[in-house]
Amino acid sequence: MQIELQRQTGLSYVQQIKSAIAERIRSGLLEEGSTLPSVRQLAKQLSVSLMTVVQAYDELEKSGLIERIQGKGTYVKTHLTTLFEHPSDDSPLGHEKQNANSSRQRQAHANYQWQFAVTDYLPRAQVWNFEPHGPFPGGINLSTAIIDPDLLPHAELNKELEKALRESPHLLTRYGPIEGDLELRTEMARYHKERGMNVTAEDVLITSGVQQGIDLVARCFVGKGDVVIVEAPTYPSALDVFRGRGATIIPVPVDSEGMRLDILTALCDVHPPKIIYTIPTYHNPTGTVMSLRRRQQLLEIAESYHSLIIEDNPWGDLSFEASPPPPSLMQLETDGHVIHLSGFSKTIGPGCRIACLLAKGTVLKRLIGAKSTVDLGSPLLTQRAVLAYLRSKHAKTFPKQLSQALLTKLQAVLTALEQYAPPGVRWTVPLGGVNIWITLPERLRAEDLLAASRAQGISFLLGSACYPGEPEFNHLRISFANAKKEELHRAVRTLCETISSLLQQPRDRWGQEPIL
Hints:
The protein has three domains: 13-123, Winged helix-like DNA-binding domain superfamily/Winged helix DNA-binding domain (Arc Repressor Mutant, subunit A), CATH 1.10.10; 140-146 and 396-509, Aspartate Aminotransferase, domain 1, CATH 3.90.1150; 153-391, Aspartate Aminotransferase, domain 2 (3-Layer(aba) Sandwich). The chain is built from 18 helices and 15 strands. It has helices at residues 13-27, 39-46, 50-62, 79-85, 92-110, 154-167, 182-193, 210-221, 236-244, 261-270, 292-305, 329-332, 345-348, 361-374, 380-391, 393-420, 446-455, 485-504, and strands spanning 66-69, 73-76, 140-142, 204-207, 227-232, 248-255, 258-259, 275-278, 308-313, 338-343, 355-358, 426-427, 435-439, 458-462, 475-479.
């Protein structure tokens, strides 16, 4: 377990160690029952005093994340899953079952204790954060930002896959160009030109999803200690990538117009950014849209500090507005500061894993080099199928149809929130995309709500996953695109009733300390 301690963050070593271990626990990298390094081992590894590690472990234990057993060691506490599966089981039998589970898990992990000698460099990963406490069969899943498969063009895509194989049986027997199939890149350039961007096929790199695009940029341009500015809150998996590169991640709050550029400007004087990561159109998780004025100002900031901007645009075509959003950053800029990412997997089929990265000049050449070290090019068969689909008549009308279907779902959620949400609960009204950001009264933690909601068959994403450092604990994200309309009304009603119930309980009945 590699923890990078930084001297100039304003956080003590105790706080940094505590936060690093807590992130691993929260994301599932450290499983319940896992044995943590001894105080002496961790102090030696990090070159800190024994007392520093003792204090960090004390803080983690107070937060309910770890437990120390005299003569045996320090473990990730096993009550976390049990709490979600049996939130009201305070009986002696319930405690007996919990203790038995803890003992079994500790014994299972003891067999792999030697693996702590193999250092890892993965500080956080949100792969389990969307379903952080195991499978969720039979429930209503509002945690993942995916679209109901019944709304996606799977029949049309299957048809194009079969056709591509029939007409070009050699597709599975050879590599395609690392930068992507030329015909698909040409089609992607045409697609983005229609949206006002001055690009050609030479400016296009096909990636295996937007996530890979973010990773390629980080591989090329982010090293240990480099400053990366992100919105707060933001897309959790982007944080995973930047943290994995050892970046100094600095969050900037968002409001109804997007990233707060007054705060960004003040930060840049002290911490000049290498990368600015933003989702200006239908922001994830809030659904807001950055104003044209701020987009122009953001480009000026990037020019002043020679920064690269990653413009993440996963939901650009899924608009609920009568008028289009402001021009993209890629459309507005002229000097090569913007790397634009457009995803097609989410709106065509998540299994496609096809996205488009746009960049100019040597930046793109270096990104192609990074792509060659990762996978030597995205699957050619999938590229050809997506190409054929994008050329079809269905693809021209589908985004508008899908947006209308999603708007109907959104309206069901908003109606239910208006009807059932207790006083003090606030939420965003997204202008596009698939997410709603909900803020609870400050005295109620989203972790406690998730525990109670899962017992009622409802799952959502903890807002704390969307922050890079010390997170806020009274937010949650619900994604409305996957559930059926009738399920959404029932889920939101249940969620609101659960909030009301928790607010009426004494504070000491609300579960464990915040997971940091």
